[in-house]
Design goal:
By secondary structure, the chain is of the alpha+beta class. 46% of the residues lie in helices and 20% in strands. 32% of the residues are buried.
């Protein structure tokens, strides 16, 4: 069964006007939900959780002509088959530790949905578009694996910012890439969101930047970078990486303490790699 949970106080307050929670305060609601979820789990039922987000829920109800104050609407929203990716399965945890994980999962799902829409619009829905979609996803997978291999041992951070060629919507994503004894940690929803976002940026021929922040515990806080243009990733010079970090500061992000800008290395499909152009031409 599926359960939509008002994880954030602001969403809870916005939805309380529909009478969804009776007279409960948010913390009382969370305690009651935890009791109910644990009871369902003890009965052997598999429970799929999703975040009950006020604006999204109201849009959903309006689109389907549902009354947001009815149990029918809430049940339908919880089990919406359009939800991106595999379900978030409840395993008997306390909500205090689970809610941050659920919210991170929700944000990744939103990034996946937005990026998927841009990607599918770019490649088209005909047979040629399906082939192009498969090609770009294979290419992005090879890029991701090459980034992990080039990063080396440790837990590194990949950040991506890109937008369409004609003032398109900006797409952003970030993911931890952890390598131990030459092997990657199991991929999660953030990895899926990152790969789909990169695929969308490449497919639309947009511009942007990909930065790889090295694990400070491994080799120090180095940062490597690649510029995205016309569907291709080009290694940045160390100076370009520094400029990109400076631009991030102007966008409100902190400059990584002690960061040492380094040039990017060749990736599959880049002009410097042996196989030449990528899959999007």
């Amino acid at each position: 069964m599926a359960v939509a949970l008002a994880a954030q106080a602001a969403d809870f307050a916005a939805l309380a006007r529909y009478g969804l929670f009776g007279r409960l305060a948010h913390q009382d609601y969370l305690r009651r939900m935890e009791e109910q979820l644990r009871a369902l789990h003890r009965q052997g039922l598999e429970v799929h959780l999703r975040v009950l987000e006020a604006a999204d829920y109201e849009d959903y109800c309006e689109a389907l002509g549902l009354d947001p104050g009815t149990p029918t609407a809430r049940v339908a929203y919880a089990g919406d088959p359009e939800l991106a990716g595999e379900p978030f399965v409840y395993a008997g945890e306390g909500l205090a530790g689970l809610l941050p994980l659920l919210l991170d999962d929700h944000r990744a799902r939103v990034r996946i949905s937005v990026a998927c829409a841009a990607l599918l619009a770019a490649v088209g829905d005909d047979p040629a578009g399906h082939r192009r979609l498969a090609a770009v996803m294979r290419h992005v997978t090879s890029v991701y694996l090459a980034l992990a291999e080039g990063a080396g041992e440790g837990c590194h951070l990949l950040t991506l910012r890109c937008h369409g060629p004609e003032d398109g919507e900006e797409l952003t994503s970030a993911v931890d890439v952890c390598v131990e004894a030459g092997g990657l940690y199991p991929a999660g929803r953030d990895t899926e969101a990152f790969c789909v976002t990169l695929a969308a940026g490449m497919a639309v021929g947009g511009a942007g930047a990909l930065l790889l922040h090295g694990d400070p515990a491994a080799e120090g806080p180095w940062v490597r970078g690649w510029a995205l243009a016309d569907g291709q990733l080009r290694p940045m010079t160390a100076h370009e990486v520094f400029d990109e970090l400076a631009d991030d500061v102007e966008r409100g992000l902190p400059f990584p303490p002690g960061a040492v800008p380094r040039a990017g290395f060749p990736l599959p499909g880049s002009a410097e790699s042996q196989d030449g152009g990528g899959p999007l031409g």
